[in-house]
Amino acid sequence: MNKTKVFHELHHGDGPLVLPNAWDFGSAAVLAAEGFPAIGTTSLGVAVAAGLPDGAGVTGEATLALARLLARLPVPVTVDIEGGFSESPTAVGEYTARLAELGIAGVNLEDGRTETALAEPDHQSELIAAIKTRTPELFVNARVDTHWLKLDTDATLARAEQYTAAGADGIFVPGLTDPDEIGRLVAAIPLPVNILYSPTGPSLATLTDLGVRRVSTGSLLYRTALAAAVEAARAARDDTPLPRQPPTYARIQALT
């Protein structure tokens, strides 16, 4: 199976690709076994699992190490590479080429640089173009962080259009939950639009009607797993019933 080709095709099915985001081999393998047709990674989960901060550009090696493991999965995998782990277009292109050589199908490249700053769109476009020049088959999901960081939200469409022109394969706008704005973005952008799932945001049915082609879970699964671990530990300490039945040891062992 050509996983990269399959991953592209998953953005053009009857409904949105619901993409769960894993943080290690176990979480990715159990999600693949559950029937999800593709798996993404969450940069927060990967970073914290390695004892590193998210969004600081310091998890390049940890991300690459995880990608080597996830490439064994029977489904396509897309990897969150934050801002590319470098400001050099050549370096970013080479890094993503290493991912593609492992069998990774796509990357998520964000234009947020800190909690208070966005990359210059011209430079971000150079990074996107460098990836597509080096590995044209790789699915580049260009993340626009204007709503996520609440910075210059009026520039969302302009950035999306510029990244489209640079060769991106999809546009991701996390933090955008207003149905009218989502609809306008989908209508204006010829690429598949990715929205971050929000428990308080539009339903999957609404996002489908709006034309959204991909719905990601981001760090939600990782944060939920941490909460479940704390709940189980409290149950053991307080001698109370477990809040949920976990998978058996044998089931998890069988994933490796």
CATH A-level architecture: Alpha-Beta Barrel
H/E element sequence: HEEHEHHEHEEEHEHEHEHEHH
Shape: globular
- As a whole number of angstroms, the C-alpha radius of gyration is 18 Å
Keywords: Lyase
Pfam family, one: PEP_mutase
InterPro entries: ICL/PEPM (IPR039556)
Protein name: Isocitrate lyase/phosphoenolpyruvate mutase family protein
Put the structure in a nutshell:
The chain has 256 residues and is of the alpha/beta class.
Structure overview:
The chain has helices at 3-9, 25-33, 43-49, 60-70, 89-102, 121-134, 156-165, 179-188, 204-210, 220-238, 249-253, and strands spanning 17-19, 21-22, 39-41, 77-80, 106-110, 112-114, 117-118, 139-143, 170-172, 193-196, 214-216. It has 256 residues and is α/β, with parallel strands linked by helices. It has one domain: Phosphoenolpyruvate-binding domains (TIM Barrel). Strand 6 (112-114) and strand 7 (117-118) form a beta hairpin. Helix 5 (89-102) packs across helix 6. It is globular, with a radius of gyration of 18 Å. The mean pLDDT is 97.
Any descriptors?
single chain; nine-stranded parallel sheet; 11 helices; TIM Barrel; globular; lyase activity; alpha/beta; lyase; two-stranded antiparallel ribbon; ICL/PEPM; 256 residues; 14% strand; Isocitrate lyase/phosphoenolpyruvate mutase family protein
